[in-house]
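Support request from a user on the community tier.

User writes: "When I paste my structure tokens into the form, the page sometimes reloads and wipes my input. The last time it worked, I copied everything first. Here is what I submitted, just in case something in the input itself triggers the reload:"
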């Protein structure tokens, strides 16, 4: 396909000249295809010299000019020329926003590319703002029951979480979960993943519904992975921590002891998960004013922690400090 369009570009250049609209459109197509084929350097080599003539022939804010500019921004981002790519992305988007009737598909495609660029730069808050625009467009076009809408809303929730804004992430995760349960079903992998992330964010916020969400995660893992699976152990460990943090220490002890027994049986006494759970149970016993039981547990833990983690690890240091 690229070879065909390169031949077309050469023909049009010979017949019409390099600045003819048909020649410029053929060059645009070659640049887009090179980028789609994973060759950003070749795409840049075509698109960069094309931009000036497009501005002069079509105008600076013509859809063809802006699409050339947007794809050049994508190519530069792939090549690591981040500052230049950033400027082109935003200039192109602002030009689209000024247009009376911008091509909606071009705008949303550019926003998606900008979201990916910002996400890769760890600029998650900016990415989330642009992802809101992507979601609004897709939801308007496809309706709330579309799998694509679920993906875009989940992306928005993830970006808010990564940006360190759990208050913004929580309601988006809740909406995503409700839609996923309705569209995909309660046991679909996407649904269970969203439920896990929702529980994590809710626990970070100490949300009143956090325990209900985490118990649902435990139920998911028990139902789908089996009662002795690693996923169940992680989910139940998180539930034990939540219960402990809410001051229900007796209940937390029962949960930690169950998880510890399952860790030892499933993963062995030297597994890191077993050692972390042992340390958590020891800390809980200290909180419950049972220092003798805690000391016995930490003495048992110390030689294994030294062997597995090393002398300077926090678990090893706690075992040495409290196992006296």
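"...and here is what came back when it finally went through:"
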């Amino acid at each position: 396909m690229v070879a065909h369009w390169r031949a077309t570009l050469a023909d049009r250049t010979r017949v019409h000249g390099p600045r003819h609209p048909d020649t410029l459109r053929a060059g645009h197509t070659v640049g887009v295809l090179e980028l789609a084929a994973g060759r950003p350097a070749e795409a840049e080599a075509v698109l960069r010299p094309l931009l000036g003539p497009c501005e002069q022939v079509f105008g600076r804010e013509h859809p063809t000019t802006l699409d050339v500019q947007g794809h050049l921004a994508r190519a530069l981002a792939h090549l690591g020329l981040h500052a230049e790519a950033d400027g082109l992305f935003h200039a192109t988007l602002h030009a689209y926003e000024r247009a009376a009737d911008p091509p909606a598909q071009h705008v949303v495609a550019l926003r998606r590319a900008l979201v990916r660029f910002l996400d890769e730069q760890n600029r998650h808050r900016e990415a989330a703002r642009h992802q809101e625009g992507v979601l609004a467009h897709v939801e308007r076009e496809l309706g709330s029951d579309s799998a694509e809408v679920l993906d875009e809303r989940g992306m928005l929730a993830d970006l808010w979480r990564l940006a360190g804004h759990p208050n913004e992430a929580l309601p988006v995760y809740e909406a995503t979960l409700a839609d996923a349960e309705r569209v995909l079903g309660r046991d679909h992998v996407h649904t269970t993943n969203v439920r896990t992330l929702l529980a994590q964010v809710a626990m970070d916020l100490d949300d009143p519904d956090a325990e209900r969400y985490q118990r649902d995660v435990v139920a998911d893992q028990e139902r789908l992975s089996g009662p002795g699976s690693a996923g169940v152990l992680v989910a139940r460990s998180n539930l034990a921590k939540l219960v402990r943090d809410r001051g229900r220490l007796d209940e937390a002890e029962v949960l930690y002891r169950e998880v510890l027994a399952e860790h030892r049986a499933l993963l062995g006494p030297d597994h890191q998960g077993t050692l972390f759970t042992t340390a958590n149970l020891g800390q809980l016993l200290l909180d419950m004013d049972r220092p003798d039981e805690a000391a016995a547990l930490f003495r048992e833990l110390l030689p294994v922690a030294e062997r597995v983690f090393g002398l300077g690890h926090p678990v090893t240091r706690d075992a040495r400090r409290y196992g006296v």
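Agent notes: The reload is a front-end session timeout and is unrelated to the input. Residues 178 and 322 are 46 Å apart (CA to CA). The domain at 235-324 is CATH 1.25.40.10 (Serine Threonine Protein Phosphatase 5, Tetratricopeptide repeat). Escalated to web team.
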